[in-house]
Amino acid sequence: FxxxxxxxxxxxxxxxxxSAVNAERGGAGRLELCSSLLEGGxxxxxxxxxxxxxxxxxxxxxxxRPRGGDFLYSDLEVDVMRKDIELMKSQGxxxxxxxxxxxxxxxxxELCMELLAAARPLPVxxxxxxxMVHDPAVALEALISxxxxxxLTSGCDSSALEGLPLIKRLVDQAKGRIIIMPGGGITxxxxxxxxxxxxxxxxxxxARSSRESAMKFRNTCVSMGASFSAPEYGLKVADVSxxxxxxxxxxxxx
Length: 254
Known about the structure:
Mean pLDDT: 93
CATH topology: TIM Barrel
Order of helices and strands: EHEHEHEHEHEHEHEEEH
Structural class: alpha/beta
């Protein structure tokens, strides 16, 4: 009679030092460090990486994504990605997170190969550009042959819960050749269903709660970004108790 121990790894995406510290305190196993989570996560500043490294011990995977929007990149944007990879590597990133597609919705194998070569020897996650592909089964084989360590996906749907049937198929197809990490709208309410229904061993969440700004004087006539932007006087920060709860659910699932 053998007891099989399943060990879940929780990755928390963070865009501030405070969130990074809270994620580690709550039991996160790895950070995905970004800026601008409102746009799905962009490349963070070197300053943030530096300071996060001073305060946390868990691995930090840095997002390499020069702008929001689609994943079809110009030559100039590719130059920026290459430079960012070089800088993040030199400043102690433990891994990188990136992805690129062709105009017809396939994995851009040529560009990914180039970026993976630049990233070596760091492990690399293919991000949710995967959720924009034309054929997920074909895309997964491409990522495996390119040598990505894992793929972050909501199952090509608006959340990991809605994409659960596809996530399960991807886990079955991968057969351990690449890690399938569900992410997108994962909360304490649905985590158990997602882990049990997918067979995934890692999951990705932001575990944030809103916090009121400390500003006493407020100018409500001005907004710093487009109309869909986050409220100027509210902050979203990874919440230690949310991270702890998610971690406990994962531990109790199997």
